[in-house]
Amino acid sequence: MAKPSSASAQSQETRTEAERTWLTVPELVDVLGVGVGRVHRLLEDKHLLATRVDGVLKVPSDFIAGDEPLSELRGTLIVLADAGFSDSDAMSWLLQPEDSLGVAPIDALRAGRKAEVRRIAQALG
């Protein structure tokens, strides 16, 4: 993963994957107020996406809004899967700065730019 050469090259809203906060399944149970089985169901049903970080299954905290999964995430994950993205590729794409958006796609989703993010994701397929 390439890092920008200067702070000005990176949007103030965009953070690298390593700079993001990651939640484990037990932490998600606490944040979402649901059981472990429900967390696993949210992952299976593409309401959330997880990856292994240092061998532990984790979800970026950016994928959570309040006490529930970010509502715009599921449809975006489905679009990415339809475009041929693996879960690993989708995670990377969502968290890395996207030139056409000016920020990482997850940051654009959180800013209400769902249609734009999905349009770009669809074009990648």
Write the layout of secondary structure elements.
Layout: E1 22-24, H1 25-32, H2 36-44, E2 51-53, E3 56-60, E4 64-65, E5 68-69, H3 71-82, H4 87-95, H5 105-110, H6 114-123
Antiparallel strand pairs: 1-3, 2-3, 4-5
Structure overview:
The protein has 125 residues and is an alpha+beta fold. It has one domain. 43% of the residues lie in helices and 12% in strands. The protein contains 6 helices and 5 strands. It has helices at 25-32, 36-44, 71-82, 87-95, 105-110, 114-123; strands at 22-24, 51-53, 56-60, 64-65, 68-69. The strands form 2 sheets. The protein has a 3-stranded antiparallel beta sheet with strand order 1-3-2. Strands 4-5 form a two-stranded antiparallel sheet. Strand 2 (51-53) and strand 3 (56-60) form a beta hairpin. Helix 1 crosses helix 2 and helix 3 packs parallel to helix 6 (114-123). The longest helix is centred in the middle third of the chain and has 12 residues, at 71-82. It is globular. Mean pLDDT is 88; it is low at 1-13.
